[in-house]
Design brief:
Elements: H1 50-57, H2 63-85, H3 91-166, H4 186-197, H5 202-222, E1 226-230, H6 234-243, E2 248-252, H7 263-279, E3 283-289, H8 297-308, E4 312-317, H9 323-326, E5 332-336, E6 340-346, E7 352-358, H10 361-377, H11 381-393
Parallel strand pairs: 2-3, 3-4
Antiparallel strand pairs: 1-7, 2-5, 5-6, 6-7
Helix pairs in contact: 2-3, 4-5, 6-7, 8-11
């Protein structure tokens, strides 16, 4: 029995010459068999040959035969012409002249072909650049279209979201009433303001908090159309004077007689002068006297000083008024724009103990009615001058008791 193995057929499943694809151990070729040439291969196109590659490049695959042919075509006639024109030169010279002409023809053709190849290369390069540019432009346009369509879809989505969630349906309702501050929230609100506005010093921080608590408390009280504070509040009086737009109607009792010589009084009169001159707000003041004994030069000078400021002034002596006018309040009050009444209450010692702001319309109307009645019954500045003169001359009956 023979132990020799039968030769195995070659594996042709892969390209010839591929390592590891033949049937031989280790992928080795049999001795003496040359390796097949490797060439790029695509399924749709057979491997290029030198002739097809040259055809694709637009050049002749074998230029030298054409050059030799051109040299023969030029060299043979040149040899014949040289033999005819100068037979005495001999055949060597005739062949030399023919060779020179043949070499010149071959050189010319070589240069001509080289120039043609350079031009064709430039044309092919330009065509390639144009093709790449066109591809880039097409890609950019495609991306722009995709971006534009994406933005359009995003805009539509946002519009639907806004219409569905944010835009409320139109309502024909009255404007909502102002939100009032709850009393129990005033300390927290004051504390929050103090934390934002207060400086670093602890005492100033506490001061700001207390002031904010006081102001916010007063503003909260005004939501009920009434607010009050202990003592005299000159700041309220000045602020209301600057805020007035239509009118200021004020009464002044004997309790205020010392007030007109104080520093707050000068600021108060200055604010009233600005209201009259700059905003055209009429100011009327009615002095209410407890007795005719108060009719003196001091009162006359006070009235003349305020008349110089274009304040309308009148004086009423309460005991001399008709009985029906004696029934009613005699406390100081100032009505601003016939909307807010600024009032000062006194104790039994005629000391100002409380300042109130009242904006209830029934109360303000009662104050305005009282002011008009007393104003009509009072004396003008000219009448006051005559009355003071009569008092000094003793011609007017005055209760001296």
């Amino acid at each position: 029995m023979s132990t020799a193995q039968a030769p195995q057929p070659e594996d042709t499943s892969g390209p010839p010459g591929t390592v590891g694809t033949s049937g031989h151990p280790g992928g080795r070729r049999p001795a003496g068999r040359p390796a097949p040439p490797r060439a790029p291969h695509t399924p749709d196109r057979p491997p290029d040959t030198p002739a097809t590659e040259a055809a694709h490049r637009g050049t002749d695959p074998s230029p030298w035969p054409r050059r030799l042919l051109a040299g023969l075509v030029v060299g043979l006639p040149a040899w014949g012409v040289a033999a005819l024109l100068s037979p005495e030169d001999g055949p060597l010279r005739h062949l030399g002249a023919a060779g020179i002409c043949a070499v010149a023809a071959m050189t010319f053709q070589h240069l001509h072909l080289a120039r043609d190849r350079t031009a064709e290369a430039r044309v092919r390069r330009a065509e390639s650049l144009l093709a790449e540019t066109a591809a880039t432009v097409r890609d950019g346009l495609r991306r722009y279209d995709d971006l534009q369509s994406g933005l359009t879809r995003h805009t539509e989505d946002m519009k639907q979201i806004v219409e569905a969630r944010l835009i409320a349906p139109a309502r024909v309702d009255l404007p909502p009433a102002p939100v009032r501050v709850r009393i129990d929230s005033v300390p927290d609100l004051a504390t929050n303001f103090a934390e934002v506005l207060a400086p670093d010093l602890p005492i100033l921080s506490t001061f700001v908090r207390l002031e904010m608590q006081r102001v916010i408390g007063q503003m909260t009280d005004l939501t009920t159309l009434t607010a009050e504070c202990p003592g005299e509040n000159h700041d309220w009086m000045l602020s209301l004077t600057r805020a007035a737009e239509d009118s200021i109607c004020a009464t002044s009792t004997s309790v205020d007689r010392e007030f007109w010589n104080s520093e707050p009084a000068s600021r108060y009169l200055h604010a009233q002068k600005e209201a009259i001159d700059e905003h055209g707000v009429p100011v009327r003041r009615l002095f209410l006297l407890e007795s005719a004994r108060e009719l003196d030069d001091r009162l006359l000078r006070l009235c003349e000083e305020q008349e110089v400021l274009h304040i309308e002034v009148r004086v009423a002596v309460l005991p001399e008024l008709p009985p029906h006018l004696l029934r009613g309040t005699t406390n100081d009050f100032i009505v601003y724009d016939e909307a807010v009444s600024f009032e000062i209450d006194q104790d039994l010692r005629d000391v100002n103990i409380r300042t109130r702001l009242i904006a209830r319309q029934d109360h303000v109307q009662d104050r305005m009615k009282r002011f008009r009645e007393l104003w009509e019954a009072g004396m003008s500045l000219r009448e006051l001058e005559v009355r003071v003169d009569d008092e000094e001359d003793g011609t007017w009956m005055v209760d001296r008791a």
